[in-house]
Amino acid sequence: MIRLLIAAAILLLLIALIRSLRASRMVFRDGRVIETRGAFSTPVRDAFKDVAHHGRVSGTVKLYPGGFMSFSRDIDEQDRQRFRNVFGTES
User: Fold this and answer.
1) Of the candidates 36, 37, 27, which has an alpha carbon nearest to the alpha carbon of residue 74?
2) Is residue 11 part of a domain?
3) Does 84 fall in a domain?
4) N- or C-end of the chain: fewer Cβ atoms within 10 A?
5) Rounded to an integer, what distance in angstroms lies between the CA atom of residue 34 and that of residue 61?
6) Residue 56 CB contacts under 8 Å (≥ 6 apart), including other chains
7) Phi/psi class of residue 64: alpha, beta or left (left: φ > 0; alpha: ψ in -120 to 50)?
8) Has residue 69 been placed in a domain?
9) CA nearest 60: which of 39, 47, 87, 79?
């Protein structure tokens, strides 16, 4: 039973690792981009920078294949919705 739980935990960690490796990520601090990883189209990148600048956003936005987005806890719900809106119109 313990071996099964350990195997399941390892499998979940591997899945999480693979998902994070395939994600594109932008990190913001006080409305500025401080790190970018992965491929963002120019319109999406520019729109995200604009949202972050106007909202003085600090935190991380990740884009996964298929259009799924995730946000760090530092980004409030209002700014999350702004990112979703521009991603929907610029992608």
Assistant:
1) 27
2) no
3) yes
4) N
5) 12
6) 30, 31
7) beta
8) yes
9) 79
Q: How far apart are CA 83 and CA 78, in angstroms?
A: 9
Domain that residue 46 falls in: 24-90
Provide CB contacts within 8 A for 29, sequence distance 6+: 58
**CA–CA separation, 46 and 75 (whole Å):** 18
**Structure confidence by residue, pLDDT tens digits, 26-78:** 999 999 999 998 888 889 899 999 999 998 999 999 988 777 899 999 999 99
Domain count of the fold of the chain: 1
- Residue appearing with tokens 């799924």: 68
pLDDT tens readout for residues 65-80: 777 899 999 999 999 9
Looking at the DSSP assignment, which residues form a beta bridge with residue 11? none
Asked if the structure places residue 67 within a domain, the reply is yes
How far, in Å, are 11, 52, 64, 70 from residue 19 at the CA level?
A: 12, 24, 8, 12
